[in-house]
Design brief:
By secondary structure, this protein is mostly helical. The protein has one domain: Farnesyl Diphosphate Synthase, CATH 1.10.600. The protein has 17 helices and two strands. Strands 1-2 form a two-stranded antiparallel sheet. A hairpin with a 2-residue loop joins strand 1 and strand 2. Helix 16 runs antiparallel to helix 17. The radius of gyration is 19 Å and the shape is globular. The two termini are about 15 Å apart.
């Protein structure tokens, strides 16, 4: 699938510039640390967060001009926070693959993965500080929110009574806050009017909520190949996401599903659980929630002119729901 922001004419070139900048800023004095720090960067990715920073900065530009280097660096700062958090996530989950390559912890061990993740957060903070105190403060707050979201998720591990409210509080911190920060940083560095900055921040937050719900749906319905990592891993880790929560609300499904959701769940039991969740209304209910968040995201852009940047953000919302529907069709 094409990048959801490719409608913005210079976006392809800007994303290539982003790749170069990411690799440049993580370069360390030693080759070994450089190799570890750049491992997931080289593995690829859609760079949604830098893309949102660039599109946000361009929403009032009718020409869709190339991004400035400061906008690109702002997007890179958020992306490095995201990648650093993935290093830490994979250690916590004992994951072996990420983006169809070996995870950093599987390749070099947990200690090096943790330190490399910390290194990436440090580099992100350096980039943000170069962009001014507001951006630096925003990134620091975002890292705090991400940690809070992860802690909330860990508190609910292997808890089949996890509520929708607890789930949404967690994903607000661990996912939506980063996407909101990407949009806000792009708008701030792009020197847009404050009302536009606020609208774009709301867009990023709502999109981020939809994005995580879709990701959680795909963990239930997609294949390993489609995900680039093992499907159903959340069930093994005791992370009961929105499709699971809604499936457990159906008494006939819960009777068989609940006994499978334990800390000793096997791969076979995980597959049985995924089949039960797919046979329930859980996936469809979660998809409706994702659609609601995507619609809210699109609604925040209503007052913006029909520029390439605004078009790109609107297209991203539509692409998100299409992505969730693909394995269901």
């Amino acid at each position: 699938m094409a990048h959801p922001l490719a409608i913005l004419p210079p976006m392809v070139d800007d994303l290539l510039r982003t790749e170069d900048e990411l690799l440049r800023v993580v370069r360390a004095e030693g080759d070994f640390l450089t190799e570890i720090a750049s491992h997931l960067i080289k593995a690829g990715g859609k760079r949604v967060r830098p893309g949102f920073a660039m599109a946000s900065a361009a929403v009032l530009d009718p020409a869709g001009s190339p991004a400035t280097i400061d906008v690109i660096r702002g997007g890179c700062a958020v992306e490095l926070v995201h990648i650093g958090s993935l290093y830490h996530d994979d250690v916590m989950d004992d994951a072996t693959t990420r983006r169809s390559v070996k995870s950093v912890n599987a390749e070099w061990g947990n200690l090096r993965a943790i330190l490399a993740g910390d290194y990436l957060l440090g580099r992100a903070s350096e980039l943000a500080s170069d962009l001014g105190t507001e951006v630096a403060g925003l990134l620091a707050t975002t890292i705090t929110q991400l940690c809070e979201g992860q802690i909330l998720e860990l508190e609910s591990a292997y808890d089949p009574t996890r509520t929708v409210e607890r789930y949404e509080r967690s994903i607000t911190g661990k996912t939506a806050s980063l996407l909101a920060a990407a949009c806000r940083i792009g708008a701030i560095v792009g020197e847009l009017p404050r009302p536009v900055v606020e609208s774009l921040t709301e867009f990023g937050l709502a999109y981020g909520m939809a994005f995580q719900v879709v990701d959680d749906i795909l963990d239930i319905v997609a294949t390993d190949e489609e995900l680039g990592k093992p499907a159903g891993n959340d069930l093994l880790e005791g992370i009961y996401t929105l499709p699971v929560i809604h499936a457990l609300a159906e008494e006939n499904i819960a009777t068989e599903l609940r006994p499978l959701l334990t800390s000793s769940i096997t791969a076979d039991e995980r597959d049985r659980a995924r089949n039960l969740i797919r046979s329930s209304n859980g996936v469809r209910t979660a998809l409706d929630v994702a659609q609601g968040w995507a619609d809210k995201a699109a609604g925040t852009l209503t007052d913006l002119p029909d520029t390439p940047g605004a078009q790109a953000l609107r297209a991203a919302s539509a692409d998100l729901i299409e992505r969730a529907n693909a394995p269901l069709s």
